[in-house]
TrEMBL record:
Protein name: R3H domain-containing protein
Chain positions covered by the region annotation Disordered: 1-43, 136-164, 192-236
Biological classification of the source: Eukaryota, Metazoa, Ecdysozoa, Arthropoda, Hexapoda
Residues in R3H domain copies: 44-107
Organism from which the protein derives: Loxostege sticticalis
Residue spans of biased composition, Basic and acidic residues class: 27-42
Residues spanning the signal sequence: none
Amino acid sequence: MDLLDSILGSMQAPPAASEAQKNAMKKQKEAMERKKKEEKNMVNKFRKRVEEKVINFIKEGSKAYLQFEPMDQMYRAIIREIAETAGLQVFSFGQEGIDRYAVVYTKEKGPSQDELTVRRAGGIWDEEKAAEMAQKHAEMQKQAALESEEDKNRKRKHGKNNELSGTFYKEKYAHLIGHDAAVKAAQKTNMNKSYGEVPSENKKDQRSIEQTMADIRAKKMKKAESDKGNLENVDT
């Protein structure tokens, strides 16, 4: 016998398991297998129930969505798998581990922005809430329409004020000088940006140079004659 055999021979063999320990280990293994089987059956039943709900949801076609109760992520994943396989879309709302739930919609008609806002805020979305949101939108649209109309009225009044002088002249003197003449007079007295109330064309001298010089000479002669007459009156 060599040294290695001597050492191995001196070592004690592990104690053999008692019959009670063997039975306990066997029961533990059986319990684990039974639990796995139960979980598998539970998942299969859940999958079958979800498939039935999804099929009915598609067949009826009258519901806007198919909502499930809050559940763990594993079960929500099964819902998503079945729904997407059927050509539907799935949204999840709520806090994970507390109240997170899945909602199934058709591809053609998903959740509205109002519904997403309410659900993401932790609110409950139903027909009553939808009607409430629709009423709010209607009131907002009505208010916007009123504000738009008021803005148009302000602009319309502003435009009328710009024509106030001409319009007032026309209405005031139409019975005296006739409607057509009043209209023409009103047009001539409309505001001019450069020269105030009188149009710039009315302020331009339309005379020729010769006529202007002749008028100046005549004016000087008239003034000279007037001055001469005044002097004669003083001497007298």
